[in-house]
Request: fold
Amino acid sequence: MQKSPDAFRTISEVASELDVPQHVLRFWESKFSQIRPLKRGGGRRYYRPEDVDLLRGVRTLLYNDGYTIKGVQKVFREQGVKFVSETGKGTVDSSLAELAREAVRRSEQDEDNSDVSLDANARKVLKGLLEDLVNLKEEIDETLWEEEEDEE
Reply:
C-alpha cells in the first residue's frame, strides 16, 4: 500500500527515500534550524511533505553540488528556505543555482581573508563564542517549536 503524497513520513521512510542513514537526518536537524519535523511521544519524528522537500534540497546541495555544511547554512541565510526546498524539488533554474553557488563561494573567501588579522587565540575565542550562540539559538528555536506544538 502506497502512502498519500500529503501523508506524514517517519524518519525511516524519509531516510530510505533520500538514501541517507537516519542519523544523518538527525545530524542535519542539529545543523539546520530550518529542519523541524513534528515530534510526538517518545521523540518520534514525523516529516511533512515540505520537510522532505527541504531535506531533499539539503541532500542535493551537500551531495550533488558539493556544498559544505557551512555553505548550506549560508544558502539558507542568503537564499532562504524556499530556495532550498525548490532545489530539492528540482525546480530551481540552473543559472539561479549557479549564482547562489558563486555568492556563497565569494562570501566564504571573504571570511577566510577576514581572519588574517586575528591571532590564533582570538580566532579560537570567537569560534567558541559563535558555537555557543548557535547552540543557544537552536535551543530557543526548539523551545519555540515545542510551544507552537502545545498551542495546537
